Amino acid sequence: MGKNTVIDVKNLSKKYLIGERSRAYKTLRDSITSGLSRFVKNAGLNKNGNRRKEFWALRDVSFEVNQGDVIGIIGHNGAGKSTLLKILSRITEPTEGYADIHGRIGSLLEVGTGFHQELTGRENIYLSGAILGMKKSDIDLKFDEIVAFAGVETFVDTPIKHYSSGMNLRLGFAVAAHLDPEILLVDEVLAVGDLEFQKKCLNKMEDVATEGRTVLFVSHNMGSIKELCRSALVLKNGRIDYQGDVVRAIQHYSQNVMNVGDDEDSDFEKKGWIRLIINGKTEQSQILNTEPFEVSADLSLLFDVDRARFVCLMEDSEGNQVVCNKHFDFEKLEKGLHRLTANFPPLYLKPGVYTLQLKLFGEAKNVSQVKYFSERLLVDITDDTGIFSGKVRATILPPVEWSISSAKVTETV
User: Fold this and answer.
1) What is the pLDDT of residue 199?
2) Could you write out the DSSP letters of every residue in 258-296?
3) pLDDT of amino acid 33
């Protein structure tokens, strides 16, 4: 472990027994029956007599995080992202391995995490600060800023149990980010906030990162991951599938998680589309916004399709549709394997991460309507001209030739 390491994770594993649930305390009946329960558990059976199943949410995860690192954690649902953050936050204990953490942690994993529902917003702010080891005078300095960020000035002396989920979320993030944590852990919980609040949170996390503090950010929003993080971990089935540069991590996630795998027979009967390829390469999906590009896809049809219509869609990281192209020239497609190719001109899109999807609509015998939707391919739009530098709101940034000349004003009677 290096001298700048603030998180050291070694062989971390977490096992759950499906169907089991824990109690906060034991009743008298629990105590009386505990002997029998232990006997049943030792036999590997649940109360219904079925053998229990083990589920490893994490398995042999190892990595180090240095002070000031801003790391994205990405992966499909159930990959182990939230479990990892809960272990780092000391909410749950690992089954195997360990996670050494050096520094004060601020975390937002679920709406209202760490809040006492009977206490007011004001009391919960001071309680959270005390748990983090802060002095009352330090919390006093941050209090107004926290309340203003959360937008709960009117309700700050109202018990948390009366807050809406949105108010809980805003206050929870404000507390986690403003009470000077040395390590900030944020889960996908930001997705439940409105767009304006999400942007506000991302800007705050960016401020935290520029101050030399450490951020671990779990999200399915690849645009936010790319904008905020410099490196990323890709989790797959509880294991680290990739670790490194954030753009390469997003590309890896795109190819190995979001797209259909190499087993062509596994999914094509349900979806038709087998794979999407950008510029003839399967290992990357990075293109310049000033250059044309080619999208190709394999399509396997189990029957003849009449009146085939193709649609290509691109959406930005916020789910806004920015490109839509429809093609109607294929009257009939015969059963079998087809290679579809679409050549796009330069799109002049703002640099960022977009998703591309192909759709097929048509008709077939004994089928009311044929609908095949491809998986979404992540496309990293980049720029090497410098024209598109800086933050802009516009989605399309076309090159424009400007000129100016003197003009005479002619008076009319």
Assistant:
1) 72
2) IS--S-TTTTHHHHSEEEEEETTBSS--EEETTS-EEEE
3) 55
Neighbours of 227 (CB within 10 A): 17
Secondary structure E strands in 112-230: 183-186, 214-218
Fill in the amino acid letter for 100. D
Q: Do residues 99 and 11 touch, judged by C-beta distance below 8 A?
A: no
pLDDT at residue 53 is higher than 60: yes
Retrieve residue 385's tokens: 């001209």
Q: What is the DSSP letter of 388?
A: T
pTM: 0.58
Q: What are φ and ψ of residue 204, in 5° steps? A: -65, -40
397: region left, alpha or beta (phi > 0 left; psi from -120 to 50 alpha): beta
Q: CB–CB of 150/171 below 8 Å? A: yes
Does position 60 have pLDDT exceeding 90, yes or no? yes
Report pLDDT digits (tens) over 9-32.
999 999 888 755 544 445 555 555
Q: From CA 185, how far away is CA 75, in angstroms rounded?
A: 16
State the sign of the Cα–Cα–Cα–Cα dihedral 241, 293, 349, 338.
negative
Q: What are the beta bridge partners of residue 379?
A: 354
- Reply yes or no on whether the pLDDT at 267 is more than 50: no
Mean of pLDDT over the chain: 78
Q: Can you read off the two tokens belonging to residue 198?
A: 């999400």
Please report the pLDDT score of residue 22 as a whole number.
Answer: 47
Q: Which of 299, 306, 301 is nearest to 365 (CA)?
A: 306
Rg of the chain over all Cα atoms, to the nearest angstrom: 27
Integer Cα distance of 185 and 181 in angstroms: 9
Which of 281, 334, 335, 287 shows the shortest CA–CA distance to 314? 287
| DSSP states of 208-240 | HHHTT-EEEEE-S-HHHHHHH-SEEEEEETTEE
Half-sphere exposure of 166 (CA within 13 A, CB side): 8
CA atoms within 13 A on the CB side of 329: 4
Other CB atoms within 10 A of residue 206 CB: 14
pLDDT in tens, 283-315: 556 788 889 999 998 888 888 888 888 999 988
Task: Please give the Cα distance from 355 to 367 (Å, whole number).
Answer: 29
d(CA 341, CA 339): 7
Q: Residue 293 — φ and ψ, nearest 5°?
A: -150, 165
